[in-house]
Write a structure and sequence with these properties.
34% of the residues lie in helices and 25% in strands. It is of the alpha/beta class.
Length: 427
């Protein structure tokens, strides 16, 4: 079974809070467009500070990428730390690394403070190398993080086999800052926490018009209108009318996951016994983890469409058996997919299209922790607690990605072709 929605996460998450559509004309200090991690974190921190905030969501909280991902709460970006500094520059590079290096700790803190039931497991992650090239990459990544004070450690082959339960890897980078989470449950928990602090969240309220006024902004939905002094655009790759710039500057990379039924206790004790989440160093990567009930979850690049869904399911079954010899015969059950927005330099983007209108997007596959932190920072910016030059990203103009649609289709088709013919992954 595959799903166009959040799949397993929709089944195991707590019930969503009631978020009726916006009706009529209302006022707010800040209007937040989008109820993913960034928008909900911004709403929570604004409401904590006593601001009057309203969130407008086209569907329901967590319905986009927030409810469809793997659930890895990672530190930093996909880029090597030195590459972040080289691309972001000597001012923003170190600032961005410091901010995102402590981002998982901020997630764990919010989960604790707001008592969010989301299977939070702050036991680290394992970035696994199946070959010599991967080992070299992990060695460089470990050295760069360690030079910045990151408490990561490189594990050898026997240590990696013991930590993963798989003989397929030559090394792994253990990052104790990171961990796993039930991603939709976390988003819904942020929504409930924001509502409890006085925020308003309106589901099924797509924004159809956004106009600057002398007093701020007028935000229009099919059944209502908001007058707000400031607006946070937090829709990332799901941005549509009336401000599609954030989506247009990103190439869409689809990513799928499949989950088994809960494994028997003897298998659960062998696979990732420490509770970490994991992925490998291959370009067409494989991610794997367990959820709180012991379901094995495996994912990779690709979309579960009518033509390619069966290809990816068959690949996932083969890959699961290759990585974990004890799993052949264990059936994959629920499947789901989401989308990753990739920017040209693999760095997030911060925009201010007009006074009082802010956006941060382009997490390049690292949405949970960065979205949480950047939501807080946008809230502090709107509250006047920090200035724009104190942010970890510069304000830049949006720039459409070249051949965006073609590149997205190529990535989707290429992933399906490689999964159709591949043995273990692809370089």
């Amino acid at each position: 079974m595959t799903s166009d929605g959040p799949g397993l996460w929709g089944v195991t998450a707590p019930p969503a809070p009631d978020c009726p559509p916006l009706t009529g004309a209302v006022r707010a200090d800040v209007a937040v467009i989008g109820a993913g991690y960034t928008g909900l974190s911004a709403a929570l921190h604004l409401a904590r500070a006593g601001a009057d905030v309203i969130v407008l969501e086209a569907a329901t909280p967590g319905a986009g990428g927030a409810g469809r991902n793997v659930g890895l709460v990672n530190a930093g970006l996909w880029l090597m730390p030195n590459d972040v500094i080289a691309r972001a520059g000597p001012v923003f590079g170190p600032r961005l690394l410091e901010c995102l290096g402590r981002a998982p700790a901020e997630v764990w803190q919010i989960v604790t403070e707001e008592a969010i039931a989301c299977e939070a497991t702050p036991r680290g992650t394992l970035h696994c190398a199946p070959d010599a090239a991967g080992v070299a990459a992990l060695r460089a990544r470990a050295a760069q993080w360690q030079s910045l004070g990151g408490a990561v450690s490189l594990l050898d082959a026997p240590e990696t086999a013991a930590r993963t339960g798989s003989p397929a890897f030559q090394a792994a980078l253990f990052d104790p800052r990171a961990g796993t989470i039930q991603p939709l449950a976390y988003a819904l928990g942020l929504a409930r926490a924001a509502l409890a602090r006085g925020a308003r969240i309106c589901g099924n309220s797509p924004v159809t018009d956004l106009q600057e006024t002398a007093q701020g902004w007028t935000v229009t939905t099919p059944q209502g209108q908001v007058q707000a002094r400031q607006v946070i655009l937090a829709t990332d790759t799901f941005t549509s009318a009336p401000r599609p710039e954030c989506a247009r500057e990103q190439v869409i990379l689809p990513y799928f996951n499949f989950a088994t039924d809960p494994l028997p206790p003897e298998l659960r004790a062998e696979i990732l016994p420490g509770g970490e989440g994991a992925w490998d160093t291959r370009k067409l990567l494989t991610s794997f983890r367990l959820d709180a009930a012991g379901r094995f979850i495996i994912g990779s690049v690709g979309q579960l469409g009518a033509l390619d869904g069966a290809v990816h399911r068959a690949w996932a079954a083969r890959q699961m058996a290759r990585l974990f010899p004890g799993l052949p015969g264990v059936a994959l059950q629920t499947g789901w997919w989401g989308q990753i927005g990739m920017t040209s330099d693999a760095l997030p983007r911060m925009h201010q299209p007009a006074p009082g209108l802010w956006s941060i997007s382009g997490y390049n596959g690292r949405g949970i922790a960065p979205g949480t932190v950047f939501g807080r920072l946008l809230a502090e910016l709107c509250l006047g607690r920090i200035s724009v030059d104190q942010m970890p990203l510069p304000v830049t103009p949006s720039s459409p990605a070249m051949l965006r649609s073609l590149r997205g289709l190529t990535l989707r088709g290429g992933a399906a072709a490689l999964h159709l013919v591949s043995g273990y992954g692809a370089r």
